[in-house]
Amino acid sequence: MTRKIIVATLAVFVAWGILDFIIHGLILSSAYAKTAILWRPMAEMKQILMYLVTFLSALIFITIYARLISPKDLNRGLSYGLLFGLGAGISMGYGTYSVQPIPYNMALVWFLGTTVEGTVAGLIAGLMVKEDNKETA
């Protein structure tokens, strides 16, 4: 199971990296430019820390699925991912919107993007992390 967790974690990490680029680098780039006062300048961004946080989040996401979700199948993976994404997305998008002066569009895209990212991670978990087949005599 450990190998499955590692490979699935790497797959989620890559998927989230691609989706983050689409969401933050393409869709929201103009919104970030308009609200630049709220963010660190690019030269001060903690890039390695962002990658580490994303990797650890992927590892935790997959480990929860591997250890706590049963039976492991595509439908359970998608359900888990969708619920995780909705919970994280509400917090990310609307939780931030409630306390920080970000545009509503940014909050909405954060919410929807995080929901999509969770669902994609659930799809990956459902496809890659299966029950170990242990035969008993």
Key attributes of the depicted protein:
137 residues; mainly alpha; elongated
Structural account:
It is a single chain. 77% of the residues lie in helices and 0% in strands. It has 137 residues and is mostly helical. The chain has one domain. Helix 4 runs antiparallel to helix 5. The longest helix has 26 residues, at 2-27. It is elongated and about 55 Å long. The model has no long low-confidence stretch (mean pLDDT 94).
Residue runs with pLDDT of under 50 for 5 or more positions:
none
Cα distance spanning the termini: 21 Å
Whole-number count of domains: 1
Sketch the topology as an H/E string, one letter per element: HHHHH
Tally the beta strands: 0
Structural class: mainly alpha
Summarize this structure briefly.
It contains five helices and no strands.
